[in-house]
Amino acid sequence: MRGGLVASARLLPRPLVRWFLQRRAQQDINENMLGGKKVKIIFVLGGPGSGKGTQCSNIVEHFDFIHLSAGELLRAEINSGSENGTMIDTIITEGKIVPSEITIKLLQEAIIKGGNDKYIIDGFPRNEENRVVFESVTLVTYFQLLEISISPEFVLFFDCSEEEMERRLLGRNQGRSDDNIETIRKRLKVFVESSLPVIEYYESKGMVKKIDATKPAPEVFEDVKAIFTHMA
Ligand SMILES: Nc1ncnc2c1ncn2[C@@H]1O[C@H](COP(=O)(O)OP(=O)(O)OP(=O)(O)O)[C@@H](O)[C@H]1O
Ligand SMILES: Nc1ccn([C@@H]2O[C@H](COP(=O)(O)O)[C@@H](O)[C@H]2O)c(=O)n1
Ligand SMILES: [Mg+2]
Q1: 176 assigned to a ligand binding site
Q2: Which residues bind ATP (predicted)?
Q3: Are 1 and 75 in the same domain?
Q4: pLDDT tens column, 187-215
Q5: The domain containing residue 8 runs over which residues?
């Protein structure tokens, strides 16, 4: 049936087909659609050790979202032996931010592969460059490359004191190359200088849902759950 439709489309004048595809794609862009589905994206932000990963695991257990962690995707890229692996490893160990095109390519691939229409993206956007580049993501839709912009439904911000974040990271014990006091201090500085402005940007648009993340994890999840339960 689909083969028949494609064959029939080939008989139509090319400008007409192109016009039709562009019109559908434009409709999708306006409605935050990906491959005919309305895509819901929630950015999960907060300082290092604020509990983003912990709470995202809770969210996917209770709600129909796919969890994508930008940091996890970058660590997987290092472990895959990719040509960018060494460079990413160095940047992470220095607590700096990886160039946006690398992280966004990994996120794009994961979104397309995920095949779901609801994603929580943890640890992204980490700076203004991440945010701006993601706003003009290129995705393959309708047989051609199109500039499509995906904006988040809202931003979940885990607000936690630096002392508590530092304490948690020093006790995490997962063998991460950036969980040492020197890198932790650098990451906290990068968070204040580069990531907080992104949160402030979304705050100015009324898109931030702030959570007190200093509380014990089960109590934090109660607040998170209330937000997701009340989502449309
Ligand atoms: N509310 C909490 N109270 C106490 N400990 C917590 C809380 N939430 C998470 N933790 C613990 O703190 C550590 C860091 O948590 P988690 O990995 O979820 O943070 P994160 O924000 O994803 O950090 P990163 O940005 O470094 O990936 C983990 O060992 C986790 O078990
Ligand atoms: N958008 C991002 C996200 C992460 N990184 C780098 O990965 C490190 C670990 O990230 P976590 O979210 O797992 O803490 C982070 O410190 C950055 O070096 C990035 O560059 N861009
Ligand atoms: Mg994490």
Answers
A1: yes
A2: 49-54, 172, 215
A3: no
A4: 999 999 999 999 999 999 999 999 999 99
A5: 1-30
